[in-house]
TrEMBL record:
The lineage of its organism: Eukaryota, Metazoa, Ecdysozoa, Nematoda, Chromadorea. GO terms for biological process: endoplasmic reticulum to Golgi vesicle-mediated transport. Keywords: Membrane, Signal, Transmembrane, Transmembrane helix. It comes from the Eukaryota. Residues 1-20 form the signal peptide. This is L-type lectin-like domain-containing protein. Residues 37-262 form the L-type lectin-like domain. GO terms for molecular function: D-mannose binding. It is a single-pass type I membrane protein. It comes from Strongyloides venezuelensis (Threadworm). It is found in: Membrane. The chain crosses the membrane at residues 304-323. One of its GO terms (cellular component) is Golgi membrane.
Length: 338
Protein backbone atom coordinates (compact mmCIF):
# COMPACT_ATOMS: atom_id res chain seq x y z
CA UNK A 1 0.00 0.00 0.00
CA UNK A 2 2.82 2.35 0.92
CA UNK A 3 4.70 1.58 -2.32
CA UNK A 4 1.51 2.19 -4.33
CA UNK A 5 1.04 5.57 -2.65
CA UNK A 6 4.66 6.55 -3.36
CA UNK A 7 4.28 5.43 -6.99
CA UNK A 8 1.08 7.48 -7.37
CA UNK A 9 2.75 10.58 -5.93
CA UNK A 10 5.74 10.18 -8.26
CA UNK A 11 3.41 9.69 -11.24
CA UNK A 12 1.41 12.78 -10.31
CA UNK A 13 4.58 14.83 -9.86
CA UNK A 14 5.99 13.72 -13.22
CA UNK A 15 2.68 14.53 -14.94
CA UNK A 16 2.68 18.08 -13.62
CA UNK A 17 6.40 18.45 -14.35
CA UNK A 18 5.89 17.38 -17.96
CA UNK A 19 2.83 19.59 -18.38
CA UNK A 20 4.49 22.66 -16.86
CA UNK A 21 7.57 22.27 -19.04
CA UNK A 22 5.57 21.95 -22.22
CA UNK A 23 6.44 18.30 -22.97
CA UNK A 24 2.84 17.13 -22.64
CA UNK A 25 -0.30 18.17 -24.48
CA UNK A 26 -3.76 17.22 -23.28
CA UNK A 27 -5.29 17.47 -26.79
CA UNK A 28 -2.78 15.58 -28.95
CA UNK A 29 -3.96 12.06 -29.90
CA UNK A 30 -7.35 12.52 -28.25
CA UNK A 31 -10.48 11.67 -30.22
CA UNK A 32 -11.99 14.38 -32.41
CA UNK A 33 -15.33 13.48 -30.80
CA UNK A 34 -14.10 14.25 -27.29
CA UNK A 35 -15.08 17.64 -25.92
CA UNK A 36 -13.75 19.63 -22.98
CA UNK A 37 -16.43 22.19 -22.20
CA UNK A 38 -20.08 23.17 -22.37
CA UNK A 39 -21.66 22.91 -25.80
CA UNK A 40 -23.16 26.23 -26.92
CA UNK A 41 -25.85 25.72 -29.53
CA UNK A 42 -26.26 29.44 -30.23
CA UNK A 43 -22.67 29.58 -31.53
CA UNK A 44 -22.76 26.26 -33.41
CA UNK A 45 -23.72 25.17 -36.91
CA UNK A 46 -24.86 21.57 -37.43
CA UNK A 47 -27.30 19.61 -39.59
CA UNK A 48 -30.08 20.23 -40.30
CA UNK A 49 -28.93 23.75 -41.06
CA UNK A 50 -32.37 25.11 -41.96
CA UNK A 51 -35.15 25.86 -39.52
CA UNK A 52 -38.80 25.47 -40.49
CA UNK A 53 -38.68 28.98 -41.97
CA UNK A 54 -35.66 28.03 -44.14
CA UNK A 55 -33.38 30.35 -42.17
CA UNK A 56 -30.20 29.19 -40.45
CA UNK A 57 -30.78 29.79 -36.71
CA UNK A 58 -28.28 32.19 -35.08
CA UNK A 59 -26.38 32.69 -38.35
CA UNK A 60 -26.41 35.14 -41.26
CA UNK A 61 -25.28 34.45 -44.83
CA UNK A 62 -23.42 36.89 -47.06
CA UNK A 63 -22.09 36.89 -50.61
CA UNK A 64 -22.10 33.63 -52.56
CA UNK A 65 -22.84 31.35 -49.60
CA UNK A 66 -25.38 28.58 -50.27
CA UNK A 67 -27.14 26.27 -47.82
CA UNK A 68 -27.54 22.69 -49.07
CA UNK A 69 -28.72 19.54 -47.33
CA UNK A 70 -25.22 18.19 -46.79
CA UNK A 71 -23.09 21.32 -46.41
CA UNK A 72 -22.85 25.10 -46.21
CA UNK A 73 -21.14 26.05 -49.48
CA UNK A 74 -19.07 29.22 -49.17
CA UNK A 75 -17.89 29.17 -52.78
CA UNK A 76 -18.50 27.07 -55.82
CA UNK A 77 -15.55 25.91 -57.89
CA UNK A 78 -15.67 29.09 -59.96
CA UNK A 79 -13.63 32.26 -60.36
CA UNK A 80 -14.30 35.40 -58.33
CA UNK A 81 -16.51 33.88 -55.63
CA UNK A 82 -16.68 35.04 -52.01
CA UNK A 83 -18.93 33.70 -49.28
CA UNK A 84 -19.32 34.43 -45.56
CA UNK A 85 -21.48 33.00 -42.80
CA UNK A 86 -21.35 34.70 -39.41
CA UNK A 87 -22.80 34.10 -35.98
CA UNK A 88 -25.24 36.81 -34.88
CA UNK A 89 -24.79 36.05 -31.16
CA UNK A 90 -21.79 37.77 -29.50
CA UNK A 91 -19.50 35.41 -27.60
CA UNK A 92 -19.61 36.04 -23.85
CA UNK A 93 -17.22 33.22 -22.91
CA UNK A 94 -13.71 34.25 -21.91
CA UNK A 95 -12.25 30.85 -22.84
CA UNK A 96 -13.60 28.68 -25.64
CA UNK A 97 -12.94 25.92 -28.13
CA UNK A 98 -14.37 25.36 -31.60
CA UNK A 99 -14.23 22.39 -33.96
CA UNK A 100 -14.72 22.82 -37.69
CA UNK A 101 -15.42 20.02 -40.14
CA UNK A 102 -14.82 21.29 -43.67
CA UNK A 103 -14.06 20.29 -47.24
CA UNK A 104 -11.96 21.93 -49.96
CA UNK A 105 -12.11 20.28 -53.37
CA UNK A 106 -11.02 21.14 -56.89
CA UNK A 107 -8.57 20.21 -59.61
CA UNK A 108 -5.66 17.92 -58.76
CA UNK A 109 -3.00 20.26 -60.11
CA UNK A 110 -1.05 22.93 -58.24
CA UNK A 111 -3.21 25.82 -59.43
CA UNK A 112 -6.04 26.34 -56.97
CA UNK A 113 -7.16 28.93 -54.46
CA UNK A 114 -7.63 30.96 -52.52
CA UNK A 115 -8.75 29.36 -49.26
CA UNK A 116 -10.88 29.74 -46.14
CA UNK A 117 -10.73 31.65 -42.88
CA UNK A 118 -12.14 31.33 -39.37
CA UNK A 119 -12.83 34.65 -37.70
CA UNK A 120 -13.46 36.03 -34.22
CA UNK A 121 -14.08 39.69 -34.97
CA UNK A 122 -15.91 42.76 -33.72
CA UNK A 123 -17.67 43.58 -36.99
CA UNK A 124 -18.43 41.67 -40.17
CA UNK A 125 -17.47 43.63 -43.27
CA UNK A 126 -16.78 42.02 -46.62
CA UNK A 127 -13.44 42.54 -48.31
CA UNK A 128 -10.40 40.99 -49.98
CA UNK A 129 -8.94 39.01 -47.03
CA UNK A 130 -10.55 35.63 -47.68
CA UNK A 131 -13.91 37.39 -47.86
CA UNK A 132 -13.59 39.97 -45.05
CA UNK A 133 -11.84 43.33 -44.86
CA UNK A 134 -8.07 43.28 -44.46
CA UNK A 135 -8.16 45.78 -41.54
CA UNK A 136 -10.35 43.66 -39.30
CA UNK A 137 -10.47 43.87 -35.51
CA UNK A 138 -9.99 40.56 -33.74
CA UNK A 139 -8.59 37.15 -34.71
CA UNK A 140 -8.28 35.54 -38.13
CA UNK A 141 -7.14 31.95 -38.74
CA UNK A 142 -6.36 31.37 -42.41
CA UNK A 143 -6.47 28.08 -44.32
CA UNK A 144 -4.47 29.36 -47.27
CA UNK A 145 -4.32 27.13 -50.35
CA UNK A 146 -2.40 29.37 -52.78
CA UNK A 147 1.19 30.56 -52.47
CA UNK A 148 1.12 34.25 -53.48
CA UNK A 149 4.37 35.72 -52.16
CA UNK A 150 7.64 34.53 -50.60
CA UNK A 151 8.34 32.25 -53.56
CA UNK A 152 11.72 31.34 -52.14
CA UNK A 153 10.37 30.35 -48.73
CA UNK A 154 10.22 26.83 -47.33
CA UNK A 155 6.48 26.99 -46.64
CA UNK A 156 4.46 24.17 -48.14
CA UNK A 157 0.90 25.04 -49.09
CA UNK A 158 -1.89 24.65 -48.07
CA UNK A 159 -0.77 26.54 -44.97
CA UNK A 160 -2.55 27.35 -41.70
CA UNK A 161 -1.59 30.54 -39.85
CA UNK A 162 -3.21 33.37 -37.91
CA UNK A 163 -3.28 37.08 -37.28
CA UNK A 164 -4.48 39.24 -34.38
CA UNK A 165 -5.42 42.76 -35.36
CA UNK A 166 -6.47 45.84 -33.39
CA UNK A 167 -7.93 47.33 -36.56
CA UNK A 168 -4.82 49.32 -37.52
CA UNK A 169 -2.80 46.65 -39.33
CA UNK A 170 -3.62 45.25 -42.74
CA UNK A 171 -3.55 41.65 -43.88
CA UNK A 172 -1.42 41.53 -47.04
CA UNK A 173 -2.59 38.78 -49.36
CA UNK A 174 0.35 39.41 -51.72
CA UNK A 175 2.83 37.99 -49.18
CA UNK A 176 0.39 35.53 -47.57
CA UNK A 177 0.25 37.62 -44.40
CA UNK A 178 3.87 36.82 -43.54
CA UNK A 179 4.56 40.32 -42.18
CA UNK A 180 1.72 40.10 -39.65
CA UNK A 181 1.67 36.36 -38.96
CA UNK A 182 0.69 35.54 -35.40
CA UNK A 183 3.68 34.35 -33.39
CA UNK A 184 5.64 33.84 -36.64
CA UNK A 185 4.13 30.34 -36.66
CA UNK A 186 2.30 28.22 -39.22
CA UNK A 187 1.85 24.61 -40.24
CA UNK A 188 1.36 22.85 -43.55
CA UNK A 189 -1.84 20.84 -43.86
CA UNK A 190 -2.74 18.99 -47.06
CA UNK A 191 -6.50 19.19 -46.64
CA UNK A 192 -7.53 19.52 -50.30
CA UNK A 193 -9.47 16.76 -52.08
CA UNK A 194 -9.86 14.59 -49.01
CA UNK A 195 -12.81 12.31 -48.36
CA UNK A 196 -15.77 14.44 -47.31
CA UNK A 197 -16.04 14.66 -43.54
CA UNK A 198 -12.43 13.64 -42.92
CA UNK A 199 -10.89 17.12 -42.61
CA UNK A 200 -11.28 18.70 -39.18
CA UNK A 201 -9.73 21.59 -37.29
CA UNK A 202 -9.80 22.54 -33.61
CA UNK A 203 -9.23 26.15 -32.55
CA UNK A 204 -8.80 26.71 -28.82
CA UNK A 205 -8.50 29.97 -26.86
CA UNK A 206 -7.66 29.16 -23.27
CA UNK A 207 -5.88 31.30 -20.67
CA UNK A 208 -4.64 33.74 -23.35
CA UNK A 209 -3.19 30.94 -25.50
CA UNK A 210 -4.25 30.18 -29.07
CA UNK A 211 -3.88 26.50 -30.02
CA UNK A 212 -4.68 24.81 -33.31
CA UNK A 213 -4.99 21.07 -33.95
CA UNK A 214 -5.93 19.20 -37.11
CA UNK A 215 -7.20 15.83 -38.24
CA UNK A 216 -6.61 15.97 -41.97
CA UNK A 217 -6.44 12.30 -42.91
CA UNK A 218 -9.58 11.15 -41.12
CA UNK A 219 -7.70 9.27 -38.39
CA UNK A 220 -10.11 10.56 -35.75
CA UNK A 221 -7.33 11.98 -33.54
CA UNK A 222 -5.98 15.50 -33.14
CA UNK A 223 -2.45 16.42 -34.20
CA UNK A 224 -0.82 19.65 -33.09
CA UNK A 225 -0.44 22.46 -35.59
CA UNK A 226 0.87 25.21 -33.27
CA UNK A 227 0.13 27.12 -30.09
CA UNK A 228 0.87 30.75 -29.24
CA UNK A 229 0.86 32.31 -25.76
CA UNK A 230 0.17 35.91 -24.75
CA UNK A 231 -2.80 36.54 -27.05
CA UNK A 232 -5.37 38.97 -25.68
CA UNK A 233 -8.93 38.82 -27.02
CA UNK A 234 -12.04 40.51 -25.63
CA UNK A 235 -15.48 39.00 -25.20
CA UNK A 236 -18.45 40.22 -27.23
CA UNK A 237 -17.02 39.48 -30.69
CA UNK A 238 -18.56 37.23 -33.37
CA UNK A 239 -17.50 34.00 -35.04
CA UNK A 240 -17.51 33.81 -38.82
CA UNK A 241 -16.27 31.48 -41.55
CA UNK A 242 -15.45 32.68 -45.05
CA UNK A 243 -14.18 31.36 -48.36
CA UNK A 244 -12.74 33.12 -51.38
CA UNK A 245 -11.64 32.37 -54.95
CA UNK A 246 -9.83 34.56 -57.46
CA UNK A 247 -8.54 33.58 -60.88
CA UNK A 248 -7.85 30.18 -59.31
CA UNK A 249 -10.67 28.41 -57.54
CA UNK A 250 -11.92 25.57 -55.35
CA UNK A 251 -15.16 24.52 -53.73
CA UNK A 252 -15.17 25.51 -50.04
CA UNK A 253 -17.71 23.72 -47.83
CA UNK A 254 -18.56 23.74 -44.12
CA UNK A 255 -19.97 20.51 -42.72
CA UNK A 256 -20.20 21.51 -39.06
CA UNK A 257 -19.02 24.16 -36.61
CA UNK A 258 -19.27 23.46 -32.87
CA UNK A 259 -18.40 25.82 -30.04
CA UNK A 260 -17.67 24.85 -26.42
CA UNK A 261 -17.33 27.17 -23.46
CA UNK A 262 -14.30 26.25 -21.36
CA UNK A 263 -14.37 26.52 -17.59
CA UNK A 264 -11.31 28.35 -16.32
CA UNK A 265 -11.18 30.37 -13.10
CA UNK A 266 -9.08 33.46 -13.63
CA UNK A 267 -7.50 35.10 -10.57
CA UNK A 268 -8.98 38.45 -9.58
CA UNK A 269 -6.38 41.15 -10.28
CA UNK A 270 -8.32 44.06 -8.84
CA UNK A 271 -7.99 46.91 -11.34
CA UNK A 272 -7.78 44.60 -14.37
CA UNK A 273 -9.45 45.99 -17.50
CA UNK A 274 -12.95 44.73 -18.37
CA UNK A 275 -13.08 41.72 -20.71
CA UNK A 276 -15.20 43.81 -23.09
CA UNK A 277 -12.57 46.57 -23.32
CA UNK A 278 -9.52 44.43 -24.07
CA UNK A 279 -7.75 45.50 -27.27
CA UNK A 280 -7.00 42.47 -29.48
CA UNK A 281 -3.25 42.05 -29.46
CA UNK A 282 -0.36 39.63 -29.37
CA UNK A 283 2.22 40.42 -26.71
CA UNK A 284 5.21 39.52 -28.83
CA UNK A 285 7.83 37.84 -26.63
CA UNK A 286 10.65 39.01 -28.91
CA UNK A 287 9.48 42.61 -28.75
CA UNK A 288 9.01 42.30 -24.99
CA UNK A 289 12.51 40.85 -24.69
CA UNK A 290 13.99 43.73 -26.72
CA UNK A 291 11.95 46.21 -24.69
CA UNK A 292 13.15 44.59 -21.48
CA UNK A 293 16.77 44.76 -22.64
CA UNK A 294 16.34 48.43 -23.56
CA UNK A 295 14.73 49.15 -20.21
CA UNK A 296 17.51 47.27 -18.41
CA UNK A 297 20.16 49.16 -20.39
CA UNK A 298 18.45 52.46 -19.67
CA UNK A 299 18.09 51.54 -16.01
CA UNK A 300 21.75 50.48 -15.80
CA UNK A 301 22.87 53.68 -17.53
CA UNK A 302 20.74 55.78 -15.20
CA UNK A 303 22.15 53.99 -12.15
CA UNK A 304 25.73 54.56 -13.37
CA UNK A 305 24.98 58.25 -14.01
CA UNK A 306 23.42 58.71 -10.56
CA UNK A 307 26.32 56.87 -8.91
CA UNK A 308 28.84 58.98 -10.82
CA UNK A 309 26.93 62.16 -9.90
CA UNK A 310 26.89 61.18 -6.22
CA UNK A 311 30.63 60.44 -6.32
CA UNK A 312 31.34 63.86 -7.86
CA UNK A 313 29.09 65.48 -5.26
CA UNK A 314 30.86 63.67 -2.42
CA UNK A 315 34.24 64.67 -3.84
CA UNK A 316 33.13 68.31 -4.09
CA UNK A 317 31.91 68.27 -0.49
CA UNK A 318 35.12 66.57 0.62
CA UNK A 319 37.27 69.16 -1.16
CA UNK A 320 35.15 72.04 0.17
CA UNK A 321 35.24 70.86 3.79
CA UNK A 322 38.90 69.94 3.42
CA UNK A 323 39.71 73.48 2.30
CA UNK A 324 37.58 74.94 5.09
CA UNK A 325 39.33 72.75 7.63
CA UNK A 326 42.75 73.75 6.27
CA UNK A 327 41.73 77.43 6.28
CA UNK A 328 40.59 77.23 9.92
CA UNK A 329 43.85 75.53 10.90
CA UNK A 330 45.88 78.33 9.27
CA UNK A 331 43.82 81.02 11.01
CA UNK A 332 44.25 79.32 14.41
CA UNK A 333 48.00 79.00 13.92
CA UNK A 334 48.25 82.71 13.04
CA UNK A 335 46.39 83.68 16.24
CA UNK A 336 48.96 81.85 18.37
CA UNK A 337 51.74 84.08 17.08
CA UNK A 338 49.84 87.19 18.01
Amino acid sequence: MRNLLIFSLIKCYLFHLIKCNGFGDEIVDTSIHEYRGYYRREHSLIKPYHSSSFHVPYWELMGDTEVNNGEIRLTRNEQGKSGVIYNKSPVLSRDWEITLSFSVTGTKGKLHGDGMAIWYVKEINRGSAFGLISKFKGLGIFLDTYHNGNKGSDYQFPLIYGMVNDGTKEYNIDNDGSSTRLGYKSCSAYFRNKKKGSTNLLLRYFNNTISIYTDIDGEGKWKKCFNIDNVLLPIGYHFAISGHTGDLHDTHDILSFRMYELDFVRPDKGNEISSYDIIPQYLDEKENEIKSIREDNFSSGLKIFILFFIMILVMCFAIYYGLEYYKNRIEKSHKRFY
